[in-house]
């Protein structure tokens, strides 16, 4: 039996379009969770394949392989990774408390990378349950991700007794600094489960689901809209703005992020797996890309 993880956010819905139908009759089951839950479950062998936080995939490089041409990335604003702040400029958050969502791994590290290298500040961090009002009562800024961030960005509500916080889109902040896309999640498989994935043709099923899902984005948005209480046009645009292919440009952004977020990162350790090609380096065809406009 193979267990496939599903991130319980709108942004992965195109990757799962009719996947259960494609795998019907095969020994496959599904488990839903937020990114940090799936990161831990894959690490502990409770699931065999899942989209997980990009930073978690790098940390698990010895035990997992990346499935090629599958990711969740953005070039610029992403709308679901937001830093809400009482300060009008992130650079004013030096020595301030920033609450980080307990659902996030990649985005939490992105806040730290931007603070250290782009905003040039040294905040204090605390990881908390994702609740904007409570986070903003205790902190000067708060990181929200996923569907909650999408709802908050659409409504831009005020915090009782405090007013409306500013909101900074971290995909946009990353693009302003690096000029590159940012990859939030990668599809990863436990190396021990690779033979079973190959035997069950899981990867072709994922590719077929992604292709069909991207052709049915308005339908996906319309079905999901009642869950969030948002206009399906807002959700449609959001999904069209995402990148799902892990292109060479995406991987250049990913390599840049890993080199800044991980002191001991060795690019050759992170490998892709494909049934026809076996294992090969994720960054094999990516130049060591740190744009000249960046200063770390």
Give a brief outline of the structure.
The chain is of the alpha/beta class and 296 residues long. The protein is built from twelve helices and 13 strands.
Structure description:
This protein is an alpha/beta fold and 296 residues long. The protein folds into two domains: 172 residues, Periplasmic binding protein-like II (D-Maltodextrin-Binding Protein, domain 2, 3-Layer(aba) Sandwich); 98 residues, D-Maltodextrin-Binding Protein, domain 2. Strands 7-6-8-5-9 form a five-stranded mixed β-sheet, sandwiched between helices. Strands 3-10-4-11 form a four-stranded antiparallel β-sheet. Helix 10 crosses helix 11. It is globular, with a radius of gyration of 19 Å. The N and C termini lie far apart (46 Å). The relative contact order is 0.20.
